Give the backbone structure.
Amino acid sequence: MADSPADNANDKPGDGASAPGFAWSNMFVHPDEDPRSEGGFDDERTILAGYLRDQRLTLKLKCADLDAEALARRAVPPSTLSLLGLIRHMAEVERGWFRRVMAGEEAPKIYSTESDPDADFNGAVADPDVVTEAWRNWRAEVEFAERLVDETADLGARGRTRHGSEISLRELLVHMIEEYARHNGHADLLRELIDGRIGQ
């Protein structure tokens, strides 16, 4: 008789056992406690804002309950990819698109410089103060973005990039969903590498 998925939940790949199967202990939250939606949005605005919110919450879930050392753990050399780097990177991305492009603010970059354009990842070191700052910056940029979307009546409202091209708020929201979805895929693998937690 074959083992159930739960029977294999503690097996470790590479020791002759099969890959871990499904078990609630490997998940982040029980479905009844998941802060994300299950879709069901009625109109374009709530669809775009709702799916972006869910992607942001997914990044938070992937980083939950980890200390500075775990958050700063990098994937495989020579990659500088880490969960902490993703938090810092997405704060930079949110700031660039919503403050500079859509709101027209002269908002300097948080981490990146001319000499180190990848400082968001390169500076993601295992320091509790760096983690605290990263979350503070990310939350501030998300709050700004959510407020801007709420206060902009027309999804066709346009912002201007530093290269002079225009983008509508509608297209930007789709782009941000894409950006988070891509990096949440990275976060899936990073979190599994750290402690084996998978899913959601």
